[in-house]
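The protein record filed here.
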Amino acid sequence: MRTLLAAFAATTILAGAAQATTVYPLDRATILAGSPFDFKVELNKQVKAEDVKITVNGQDYKAVLGGEAQFVELEKGKDDKALGSAILLRGLKISAPGDYKIEVVAGDETKSVTWNVYETAAQPKAKNIIFLLGDGLSVAHRTAARIMSKGMTEGKANGRLNMDDLDRMAFIGTSATNAVATDSANTMSAYMTGHKTAVNAIGVYADRTPASLDDPRVETFAEAVRRLTKKAIGIVATAEVEDATPAAVVSHTRNRGDKADIVGMLLDVKPEVLLGGGSAYFLGKEVPGSKRKDNQDYIELFQDAGYKLATDKNELAANASAEGNLLGLFHTGNMDVTLDREFLKKGTVDKFPNQPGLVAMTKVALDRLSKNPDGFFLMVEGSSIDKMSHPLDWDRAVIETIEFDQAIGVARDFQKAHPDTLIVVTGDHTHGVSIIGTVDDEKPGTEMREKVGTYAEAGFPNYKDENGDGYPDKIDVSRRLFLSANNGPDHYETFRPKLDGPFVPAVQNEKKEYVANEQYKDVPGAVFVQGNLPKSSESGVHAVDDVVLQSAGPGAEGFHGYLEQSDVYRVLADTFALGAKQTN
């Protein structure tokens, strides 16, 4: 045992030493042939330029990477802390496929990484790609949406979701480069760049310097489409268009919160269709409701670039067939969720009474993008599956899943008419939620927990959809699904839908700790649930579970088994032949 412990200690020390120097892209990176990326080496101490040697497959790096790197004698962190020297080369490309071993020697520091550069098919497999992402989409969301919208009789679903019959499937690993847990920024970034990155980062490798906009960049899928094709690009979300998922289609920042800067990056790429919330970051700071720190009017800049503007569903419909690019901003922040927008008229619907839903936005996006004879890439996000799962508001999260599935139905109808279209449906991460059984108000007594039915006592919920719109006519039926999270802050479980507005499970006390929201304490039958997260947590968090990806159409055969999120990019790139061997 002593020998084993000694060996373990030695291994740990060596592993720590090996991490002293960091090379970006990281070891085992997969890189699309011809795709520009930044190369950076971070040394853990200050050295002289002449003491640094970098080779690629045994050759001087300049011969292979095609440029001379900038030597930074000393990088500094917060409070001017000395971090060490660095080497930086931006915008390099490697055209020849194969494995590349990068070795760095700087005095007694050494580091080696290996990259794989890959080509794609010579010819595109599909003309169009529709990438539909349910933010936080977990298996429980899918199951609950199916039961709530279609019903179940004698153990069999009475209908199928649109996503159910997509014929290709894979499990997708979501972890970040710096943690097993993950967020929407690094996960969508991996899908859209083919490179994994750190939590909160988009389109970059997260380096050690405090600045968030200078980190080593990698090309996004939309940028590659712009560089190599004449295809159109569309982004649709029910969140702010600067939020992590839509931002990752085009953006580069270590901090997903750089929303004002992300608006500028959206303008740089100029997607032909951009629909969602988030107008507060388009308005100059003098405009009421603005969240910018400057007076730049990005709505005016987009209009100067030829965009038509829509601010509600009537204007969206009026612009459905118009020529030119389309900017739709329907809320200063995140758009209201379906339950509040369409049924309960809660949330901020009184201030924004005419918001379109995801289905309408998806239809308009497809109508406009399909006018491009060269095809398109469209990203559609069901944003608030996640935004309602965080506060443990499961009824709203499930209704959002139903809306997302109806948007998938729009995509599938389009694919029937345009079979040269690849559809991809997935989540970026999961939530720790499961369906436990049902809550039956007809059971005797006043204790709500005694009305929870499990196993045979669960029976079946009694949701109805008599008007055939795909949504339950009411969510507060007498026997309803009981969803429960495996994580969260202190809160009160009421066992009922929140009809007065989205659930706020916890609020801050005078110590800045999150405690159970007393607003729900006196709801009949409410039960206090002790949290299992740090007291700094106001809501539930993401889970590390694999997400499920489903796909149909040309190129879908690339999805199978287990894939990392960064592998998904490779399938997308292959579908559009973005890494085809260049002959000119």
Q: What stands out?
A: The CA atoms of residues 31 and 117 lie 5 Å apart. Residues 129-135+166-432+546-575 form a domain with the Alkaline Phosphatase, subunit A fold (CATH 3.40.720.10). The radius of gyration is 25 Å.
